[in-house]
Amino acid sequence: MQPNFLVGIDGGGTHCRVRLIDGIGRLLAECHGGPANIFSDADGAITTALTLVEQAFQQAGLPPAAQASAWVGFGFAGANVQRARQRAERWPMPFAARRIASDVEIACLGAHGGQPGAVLIVGTGSQATSYDGHSFRSCGGWGFALGDQGSGAILGRHALRLALLAHEGIVPVSPLTQSLLADFGHSPETLLVWTQSARAHDWAAFSPRIFTYAAEGDVNGVKLVEMLAREIDLLLASLVNAGSSRIALMGGIAQPILPWLNNRWNAYIVSPVADALDGALRLAAAASACPTPAAAAQPAQPLPSPQG
Fold first, then answer.
1. What domains does the chain contain, in order, with CATH numbers?
2. pLDDT value at position 1?
3. pLDDT (tens place) for every residue of the chain, 308 residues total
4. Which of 81, 115, 145, 293 makes an SS bond possible with 89, Cβ 3.0 to 4.6 Å?
5. 3-state secondary structure 63-98
6. d(Cα 147, Cα 118) in Å, to the nearest integer?
7. Could you please report the per-residue DSSP string of 128-159?
8. For residue 264, with 0-12 CB atoms within 10 Å meaning exposed, 13-18 middle and 19 or more buried, which class applies?
């Protein structure tokens, strides 16, 4: 049995992307929307993903009923938490077949073309996984409160804490700390109120500015980015010590942090051959071979190309 359509979903902590192709691999549509973390907001994440799938079919000029002949691969942030993944597995969906994995797992499949390898995602959050051709071995991905070392959200939190210390004269002021506090009218109370509702992607939004100031030599910007690089060094060391020899660094922090990392990783870091959506399509292509939700978590056989 071959599907009429394959759909790949990359649901990340900041945004969700959907790619629709036909049974012979022709691109039909791509859509994107807001965050899709099934641990922090399962209902919102799944609704966002399914809405984008509907939009992709509409964009391709296909009727809603066409979804019934689609195989779908979901990669969700938060799906490393088993109860969150199981909730998504139970959600009513109109597709012929589906598989649900974490966003880091589909990123790994895409980065290495379905072959063995490892990835470290450093974006809004952070997580690493390695794939041996049969199963995944993951670490991290425990969220902003407990983990996300080396991520944009943690970088943003470090930066605002430092900016507050500078504002109170505990550490030297710099153009970066002044710029960050200016967003809150140089008022610690305004900053405090903001933190009460801020989500991980809100903290991560400060990352580009921090890298810009660090590149210009701002003393606090350099301190923050060097701290971030050491956190990423630790995650890379974990993968290498576990036997990974090919590691794709992915996510919004991946490119700007490269010049700040220890040179020893140059022998291990490789460019991804494709993106996470390609990995989600590979997952979708294997959807009919997955008889139970539990099997979807860790593919038991090499995954086929989305082109068949």
1. 5-112+274-296 (3.30.420.40), 145-270 (3.30.420.40)
2. 60
3. 667 899 999 988 778 999 999 988 899 999 999 888 888 888 888 999 999 999 999 999 999 999 999 999 999 988 888 888 888 888 889 998 999 998 889 999 999 998 999 999 998 888 899 998 888 888 887 777 887 889 999 999 999 999 999 999 999 999 999 999 999 999 999 999 999 999 888 999 999 999 999 999 999 999 999 999 999 999 999 999 988 989 999 888 999 999 999 999 999 999 999 988 999 999 988 876 543 333 333 343 344 445 54
4. 293
5. CHHHHHHEEEEEEEECCCCHHHHHHHHHCCCCCCEE
6. 19
7. EEEE-SS-EEEEE--HHHH--TTSHHHHHHHH
8. exposed
Checking DSSP bridges between strand 16-22 and strand 5-11, what pairing results, if any?
A: antiparallel
Calculate the dihedral angle through the C-alpha atoms of 40, 94, 58, 102, rounding to the nearest 10 degrees.
Answer: 30
Order of strands across the sheet that contains 247-250? 136-140, 126-131, 117-122, 247-250, 269-270
**Can you read off the two tokens belonging to residue 150?**
């080396």
Residues 178, 160, 11: CA angle, nearest 5 degrees: 125
Site of tokens 């063995």: 116
Q: CA torsion, points 283, 284, 289, 291, in degrees to nearest 10?
A: 90
115 touches 272 (CB < 8 A): no
Closest by Cα among 214, 201, 199, 203 to 256:
214
Q: Tell me the one-letter amino acid at 131.
A: Y
Output the CA torsion sign for 301, 22, 279, 199: negative
Q: What is the largest CA-CA distance in the chain?
A: 68
Please, which residues have CB within 8 angstroms of residue 196's CB and are 6 or more apart in sequence? Answer: none
